[in-house]
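Predict the 3D structure for this chain.
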Amino acid sequence: MTRRERLAHTYVEFIPKEIDDGVLYISRRFNTATHLCCCGCGFKVVTPLNPAKWSLVDHGDTVSLAPSIGLGALPCHSHYWIRQGRVDWYADMTEAQTLRARRRDEYASRVLTGEIKPPPPRPLPSPAKPHREEGFWATLKAWWGSLWR
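Done. Predicted structure below.
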């Protein structure tokens, strides 16, 4: 298996049954991008394009997908980003990372469909009062700091 370092892209109405290695097929009609895993294992990777899953940015000659492609459920456990047509590799997905990603995906999908409402944002903590040092060490520290201003 040879790891791929770049992907070309093409826009299609329907994702073809047989897809070429090294090509990201993008269907705007079905909000989907599909490619063969960049590790060379041959598995087809389907990335739904919606706010709960992946977003696509078209840079003209290249495209980017966010977030990363984490394939912990596949035998290869590949993990990579597609940024401006470049494949940036990360360490393989662990079981714990795969489980967290599945839970995050499920939660995001339920929020997107309106099945659940996200919790309200937490209020910002009030600023803590600065700690005031006293004594010899505080004086020495202040003097030392003044030398570098």
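The beta strands are 8-11, 23-27, 32-36, 44-48, 55-58, 63-70, 79-83, 86-89.
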